[in-house]
Write a structure and sequence with these properties.
The chain is about 45% helix and about 20% strand. It has four helices and four strands. Helix 2 crosses helix 4. A hairpin with a 3-residue loop joins strand 1 and strand 2.
């Protein structure tokens, strides 16, 4: 995933949280918000991993794996949206136990639930 396809500013995250919609599963919460028509047409993703999940090494590993899984997905997500994935407790342990393919399935599950 290219850097320009990521949400990085706090105000971008806030806009998605305040004005967007959300769905949740056991391990992930997905927020999305449609950007204005003038913006570029690639979806942007932000990943939020609370400190409750673990130390910085664990949080950054989960962020990396989620971005990689997002890039592996076919074009299921509409391009003009901003997305924020919030990790819930238990995901790092489950990924270590079940593997990367399982994480891709969970990500597909939350996207399907959102019916994007």
């Amino acid at each position: 995933m290219q850097r320009r396809h990521r949400l990085s500013r706090s105000r971008d995250f806030d806009a998605v949280y305040r004005h967007g919609r959300s769905v949740s599963t056991r391990y992930l919460v997905l927020y999305w918000f449609e950007r204005e028509a003038g913006d570029e047409n690639a979806p942007r993703l932000g990943v939020a991993v609370p400190k409750k999940i673990g130390g910085s090494v664990i949080r950054n590993r989960i962020k990396r794996r989620l971005r990689e899984a997002w890039a592996q997905l076919p074009e299921e997500a509409p391009a003009r949206n901003d997305y924020v994935l919030v990790v819930r407790p238990g995901l790092p342990e489950a990924v270590e136990t079940r593997g990367f393919d399982w994480l891709e399935e969970r990500l597909g599950e939350v996207l399907q639930k959102a019916q994007l």
